[in-house]
Design a protein that fits this description.
alpha/beta; 4-stranded parallel sheet; Rossmann fold; 14 strands; 16 helices; 3 domains
Length: 437
């Protein structure tokens, strides 16, 4: 088990740069159609989350704020939350509303779940065709990945609650897909196309492929413009299987199995030759269909790419400064190319935006992979750096990048390989890499 100091180090940099649980929760809600997210906390918290999400996806992201005032410290914030919910519902008529509690919510002792439940009971008739959830996502612990997983878990929990007593006939050709926070909208679209190629219908939660990918919207919008609609979301219970991608999505898949008796299969990633082969083999077995010719061609192309790039990657060491699911995914892919992971100081885990905490460690790396927050630090110590993960600024097309399947793996290997070829030797390190710090 980790000590308290190790956990503090693990999440220090994520909190420092605003990439925390609340960001993950808001991101997950962008994959639910006509949803509204309301943060119970300071306006500054809302603005920082909007800035980091909009900067990465280059799309407007609307977040509602339920402010905490001085009098809430004495009388509680229940009245303010009820008033804010009435305002959001009456003005914007969302299908789904997520009320997100922050560290400030916990510091004032607000029972967010009870407050939202009492609002539901008072407005049961009006909320009959809507979904209202409450989830605590304090920024003093956890990370984007954790908040994303908790939000998906809360949505699934409410779906199960609303479907209690409703018997839905199982669809043998329908499965659920729970994609992790490390997958881009482009990745989600690729997975949907792969699954559909086996004659299977797929319900995706959350579905960022139709939400954060180039809406030419006209003016301001207070609700998410893409994602899975509420009526389709309720069809989760009619699926015969669930695929979860990333460890953070397993709790939601377990919930579906426990209450709706839907079995699930967990994939740590669908990146790399071995993981992608396993994914296609599972779909073949589930659908009793053969893999389409185009994917066989993509596999051959990937093998050729791996053969061409073997000399570029072999023997190198990498430090992947990203959250756990994406770190696992990329390390599995790079291991197939002969790349070894650099040893990180004990207690440190991704994301590691503040790389100063790595100084004095004994790790050796030829290159780092991380988000925009670590880029400047890598340059100052002369380390080759490859941008990936969240957030990535000053890049076009980030939401469309692929890392899954044969095609996505080939693209990652090509892009990373070209970065290594064009970067030249690390500053002051010859060709063998450089010590941390």
């Amino acid at each position: 088990m980790q000590t308290g100091d190790e956990r503090a180090v693990r999440h220090l940099s994520a909190r420092a740069y605003g990439v925390n649980q609340a960001v993950g929760g808001i991101l997950a809600m962008q994959g639910v159609y006509q949803s509204a997210s309301a943060i119970h906390g300071s306006q500054g918290c809302v603005e920082s989350i909007q800035a980091v999400l909009s900067g990465h996806y280059r799309e407007p992201v609307t977040i509602h704020n339920i402010a905490i005032h001085e009098y809430n410290l004495i009388s509680g914030g229940g009245k303010s939350i009820h008033e804010a919910l009435r305002l959001i519902l009456s003005r914007h008529n969302p299908d789904v509303v997520a009320v997100i509690g922050t560290t400030l919510t916990e510091s004032v002792g607000e029972d967010l779940e009870q407050t939202v439940q009492s609002f539901q009971e008072e407005n049961r008739a009006y909320l009959r065709d809507k979904m209202l959830i409450a989830v605590h996502l304090p920024d003093c612990e956890g990370s984007l990945e954790a908040g994303y997983g908790k939000m998906v878990y809360s949505v699934v929990k409410e779906v199960i609650h609303q479907s209690s007593g409703v018997i839905r006939k199982k669809r043998k050709d329908r499965i659920n897909l729970l994609p992790g926070a490390h997958l881009s909208p482009g990745d989600v679209m690729e997975l949907k196309e792969i699954i559909a190629s086996f004659g299977l219908e797929v319900i995706v939660l959350p579905d960022l492929s139709s939400s954060l990918t180039g809406h030419l919207m006209k003016g301001y919008t207070p609700l998410s413009q893409g994602g899975i609609p509420l009526d389709y979301l309720r069809e989760l219970s009619a699926s015969v299987y669930t695929i979860a991608i990333g460890l953070a999505m397993e709790p939601a898949a377990q919930l579906l199995r426990e209450y709706l008796h839907i079995p699930y299969c967990l994939f740590k990633s669908v990146t790399g030759l071995r993981e992608t082969d396993a994914f296609f083999a599972f779909l073949q077995q589930l659908s009793r269909s053969e893999t389409q010719v185009k994917y066989r061609w993509q596999r051959q192309f990937l093998l050729d790419t791996m053969l061409d790039a073997r000399s570029v990657y072999r023997g190198k060491r990498v430090a992947v400064l990203l959250e756990e699911d994406q770190r696992t995914s990329l390390l599995q892919m790079l291991a197939e190319m002969g790349v070894e992971p650099a040893k990180l100081p004990q207690g440190l885990a991704a994301p590691a935006e503040d790389c100063r905490m790595l100084e004095g460690g004994d790790a050796v790396a030829d290159f780092w992979i991380g988000n925009s927050f670590a880029q400047q630090r890598a340059a100052s110590v002369g380390i080759r750096y490859i941008l990936a993960g969240f957030p990535v600024f000053n890049r076009l097309g980030t939401p469309f990048t692929l890392s899954v399947g044969y095609r996505g793996t080939a693209e990652r290997l090509r892009d990373y390989g070209n970065s290594l070829l064009n970067a030249g030797p690390a500053k002051g390190s010859g060709t063998e890499g450089k010590h941390w710090g």
